[in-house]
Amino acid sequence: MRHPVEPVAVAVHRKQLPAAGAVERQPAQAAQELLPHQRLSAREQVLLGLIASGRRLPDIAAQLDLPERTVGVYRARLMEKMRMSSAAELAHYARRHHLLPPSK
Fold this sequence. Notes:
Shape: globular
Order of helices and strands: HHHHHH
CATH superfamily of the largest domain: Winged helix-like DNA-binding domain superfamily/Winged helix DNA-binding domain
Radius of gyration: 22 Å
CATH architecture of the largest domain: Orthogonal Bundle
Number of helices: 6
CATH topology of the largest domain: Arc Repressor Mutant, subunit A
Number of strands: 0
């Protein structure tokens, strides 16, 4: 009597089905292929645009109706997520990738 797993093992061996490890690695590989700004939440994208357009933290906090400290934490996390060490780097990246909000 054949074991119920045998047809799956044969299909994997014949490359008709991906191996289990290959299926698990695909989402991680896809995430690595994204640009840093494509991994950001909607709030982080808004913040990136505001920082890149030269707004100061108090102004951003007032516009988003958030405490200045919260905006500072968001900025720190944003820089960490994008592996950048300054607001100037964020601004340069945003300009290079056309992420600035439309000017009024």
